[in-house]
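FORM 7B: Structural annotation worksheet

SECTION A. Query
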Amino acid sequence: MATSMGDATSMASMDSVENLTEIDDIKKALERLSKHEDEVEEQLKGLLEHQGTLESKMTSLHKMLPNLQILETDSRQLNSMISFTSTLAENVSGKVRKLDLAKSRVVECSQRVEDILDLKFCTDGVQIALQNEDYEKAAGHVHRFRNLDETVIRMSAETNEVPGSTLDTSFKLLYESEEKLKNIVNSKFDAAVHSQDVASVERFFKIFPLLAMHKEGITKFSKYLAAQISEKADNNLKLALHTSEDDKRRNVLFADTVTLLFEGIARVVEIHQPLVETYYGPGQLFPMLQILQKECDRQTRKILENFKSRRQYDKLVKQVQQSVMLQQKQTAGERMDPRHLDVVLSEVALISARAELYSRFMRRRALGDLEVAMPEEEKRKEHAKEIETFWSACEMSRMVQELIGIYIMMEEYFMREMILKAVSMDAIEEGQHTSSMVDDTFFIVKKSVRRAISSCSIDGVCAMLNHACTILEQDFREVLYQRLRAGFPSGFDLQQAYNLVQASITQGKLQSSDAEKVKARASFLTSLNNAEVSCDYCKALKNNLEDEVSKLYVQQCTEQSKAKLESCLGDLGTVSGRFKDVVDFGFSQLSSSAIRPRIKPLTDSFLSTNHNISEEEFSNYEANDPWVQGSIVTLDTMLSTFKSSLTSANYDTFVTLVTTEITVQLEKAVGKTTFNRLGGLQFDKELRALVGYLSSVTTWTVRDKFARLTQMATILNLERVSEIMDYWGQNSGPLTWRLTPAEVRQTLSLRNDFRSDDIKRLKL
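SECTION B. Predicted structure
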């Protein structure tokens, strides 16, 4: 189309060219014609380039024409053949369908004949079996009869039978035999139960499902098992109630009785579960477990009622509640001795643990049977929820939960009161850094929490962990804090206190004021040690309890319960931090009362020591040091007296505080002193001796605390001001220096032989 339009345009332009009279118009027309000519030539070239290809394709098409004619003929023949085959197949398939229909009718007829024969066989067999008292075979015939389709049999035989015929008689006879057999099986089973004939009980139990009496069979058999459990449990309870006072297990008699009950039920389930699954099929175990659990509830109630009566449990609970009220109101009154609760609490925890173990066993059995009966996950989830709800809401679980609720209250009272007793009976053994109340307190806490863990009640464990954290953080920590709040008495050091004690031994008397100071100082340092040891005890307790909890609960806990336990255990780490705060407070008291007053004279002595010395004085200082040796002796006396009274960790902290105080005060003293070259060298020697001594008396490094003073000694030991640039430029510049450029200039100005102009010209 584009070519035709171009031709039309060119023709129109040629017509118009003949009418042109102007030169410009003629030139433009010429250009258009030339351009059109070029385009036509390009098109012709393109067509000529494809001429060979087009000719070869046309030649191929000419060669293929004979083959296409043959192909057309063959296609027509194939179409005719397929049409014939299709018609033939339709005819054959129709005959096959007729044959298949005939076959299916023959099979149905054969099946109905067999059903009629089976009906006759069952009719004759059930009569003979009943006459021979072969109830299993009779039940088998009834079961076989029940699997027959009565409607089909009647329809197939209605053309040949009339009412009142043999077929009606057979059905009537079989129905009567079924009812008769049901009555016989029920009565025989009851008689076997009454006569304690175990073999007959199991024999007739197997017949119930053949008569479509699954529910009746499970119920009767479960009640029979429950009666056996009840009888045995009653005997065990009677034995427990008549146990002598000399029996080694008298403190856990009722826990043992509950254990025997649970073990008996578990043994019954283990023995009879295969029997139920074999003859009743999967999915029938849970109804049996429900009946057994109801009997378990009744027996557990009996045991716990006797437990409360014999142990005077309600009386103890009332006494604890009254004591708690007295404690909360802070009123005077005689509170119950917590030691009376120890045995009862242990037995309650044991009962709870046994109940939890038994519940897990029963749940596991029921859920395992459910998985076999219901492979579909959605249906299984609904029934699994029903199983969990049943055991969570059963009377046994409710009673144990009530016990645990009261147990938590009593265990908290026991723990709190025993810790108060440990504090009131606090004593210090000779040669010990801590008092007895620390070990006693953490022993009591560990005992109570571990007892709660042994109960297998996650809620109980979490509650006791919270109570333990509260008691340690508020009650026990407050005792230590109050003793440290009194402060470290000032006036004389521990060496003087030791001398006073020795004097009292030799002279037989000690002034009351001095005795009070000695006692107050010992109490302060012991409390400081107690707080430091309590930090470590909290961490150790947390780690030990984490191990025990993970062993008992890691597999049975839900993710929510695990998170709850981890949170409660993590609170013990927080309590450790709270004791660390007490330690820090104690050292702040000790620093203000015992460290600063003793360090101040040492730095004052440094100020009075001349560091603008001659060579003769420098040589004399080597033989008779005017400051550092005396200071070291004083520090050694102070540290040695504290070392015998502090734990190793507290002693290291004490040395660190002493070091910090020395560096702070000595740095101020150096800033007020004038040095010459020999004085700077003397100060460097003094500083090295002091650092060496303090490093030898502690396991911690103290050199870092002397970094600023060491750099000041380096500056004071320079020969020229310009040498500072050699040191200042080392190791990536001023970042390695603890002194600022202004402090460096200030330290240089302490040298009386350095000119201030030289110092100002430094480019630091």
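SECTION C. Observations
The two ends are 90 Å apart (CA to CA). DSSP finds 27 helices and no strands in the chain.

SECTION D. Sign-off
Analyst initials: ____
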